Fold this protein.
Amino acid sequence: MREVAAQFGKPALLFSGGKDSIVMVRLAQKAFWPAKLPFPLVHVDTGHNFGETIQFRDDLVKDVGGDLVIASVQEEIDAGRVKEEPGLNPSRNRLQIPALLNVIGKNNYDACLGGARRDEEKARAKERFFSHRNSFGEWDPKNQRPELWNLFNGKMDFGENFRVFPLSNWTEMDVWQYIKLEDIPLPSIYFSHNREFVRRSNILLGKCENITLLEGEKWESGNVRCRTVGDMTCTGMVESVANNVDDIIEEVAAARQTERGGRADDKRSETAMEDRKKEGYF
Amino acid sequence: MSTDTKGYLDMDLLRFTTAGSVDDGKSTLIGRLLYDCKSIFEDQWEAVEQSSKQRGDENVNLALLTDGLRSEREQGITIDVAYRYFATPKRKFIIADTPGHIQYTRNMVTGASTANLAIILIDARNGVIEQTCRHSFISSLLQIQHIVVCVNKMDLVDWSEDQFNKVVSQYKEFASRLDVPHIDFIPISALLGDNVVDHSENMDWYKGSPLLYTLENVYIGNEHNHVDARFPVQWVIRPHSDEYHDFRGYAGRVAGGVFKQGDEITVLPSGFQSRIKRVHDIKGDLEEAFAPMSVTLTLEDEIDISRGNMIVKQNNPPESSQQIEAMLVWFSSQTDLIERGRYTIRHTTNEVKCLLKEMKYKVDINTLHKVENDRNVGLNDIARVSLQTSAPIHFDRYRRNRVTGSFVLIDEQSNNTVAAGMIIN
């Protein structure tokens, strides 16, 4: 993170409200303490968020004394720059890309810190710490810069930018152990709670106004929690009674599904993540 | 896996690379390690089962677990470094799975730069080939202390001990010219799992340990230099707040030695001397800091220090010079090395201009001989060079300290990293 602050003129931290980006904020606080964060938090808001994460986000921003910049997918739709997917259950996942690229362009951010980890998904396994993007935000996996030792090259031409992933080498278990060690508060949806949900191709989706039941589906209720947090329309939940960090660590150790296993957006095709990344996703 | 936080944090981390030629079965071996260590999740397994079926593979194709990018799946080869993570009750592991194709050898160097151990795969039918030598030499050049040679596809040579011994002696002859203190040999079948996690029933003549046991038990305690105190300043913290009005902290990651409160230090290049007032992080004062901890130092005196400076102990300074001798690995496919060419050199947190004064010789990676008549250094070539920097840099020999002895060269036109260097003196 200090490398980013030192090598770039106008960096930003992409903040999703998920546990990885909350850990990132903690790391940033540690890296620059007692000074304030030298970059703003940028939230790409799909408009389909869990209410709990938004409240949590606003409290956290107040707490660290940082600036918050919101890139709204709804605004992109309203401005006619992107179109909502047709059908009953549209996902706004890909729509985040133009919103993100726009907020980068408008504010001239030259580096965006993200909490992505290589263990999450196979296209991310090949990502660099310092990932170069051309002026359209595109990723070129065949032409990545070599990264040796701890030497990172953030040089670029005007208009290009970088995505930087300090948590690259962390695993889901590392993240939870760190949350415990540092006693980091998390939004309540990470812990077991009672909620109405629908089972759709083995994924549990929480009830919200953007999800319409398909034929043969019904709302059920039970104790669930999120392993990852994103848009309400694509973040699957797991049935769980783990209501504190220790229980979650036990659960992660015994888990037989990857944490993104519940992400409907990755299930769309074998290379869904790679294709999104090439277009400018993080 | 240990789930209690203290036990988890105390677990060793072993980083290793896998290297081998195309079709030596690297990805299959990693798939096998992950599968047998139960690090494959159900949804990953289902996805791989499904694509194996689609491709018409007879068994579940373990290589598909690591070949992530679309073009790799199409060609059936790995084209970039893929990082994998798994843990056993003894250790956590990070695998850098690197490509075998010649044009991606630079990625092998990338994977090796942070590794404790290298697994080199040899096809039992083919024995030692050019790629084996290249990868072994790179491991040696990057000062990896352990090589595990896996003689793979033993199932295709009828589990023959003779064939294994032949490959071993072939490799030993080559390796006698390398600088690797520990080399182990294991006969395996990645496809069938023999000697990967469990002892093979097909090769009772092999008395050594299976691969996983070797990985869990190899000694990695001496990877960091704890003798020569080196602190490259990464960032100067100046809060400008009422509470910390005069605060001036120097943040960075310790590159060697130990720093304590009260230590007499020198700042390079200015040569100013002072004493450490506090060593701390966000939680408060630390008794000491050593590599690879990230900390903030404050000093007794107000002196001018900026990013790229190095804080060292007064009685043990590094070399400071504008003339550097180094081994270079060339990374760029677009531009060859230009003698008398100008580059940017990035060394620790410091960045200066440099002139590539002279290319002394190239190394033939098959024979390890010096080649003096071929002056052309391109992608994947290894050469001994002398550099002249625009300002002194503060370094140790790479053999002594991997952090302060390494650098990369950046092309000023394209901004690309074109070479990696290891300082000789």
Notes: Chain B has a mean pLDDT of 85.
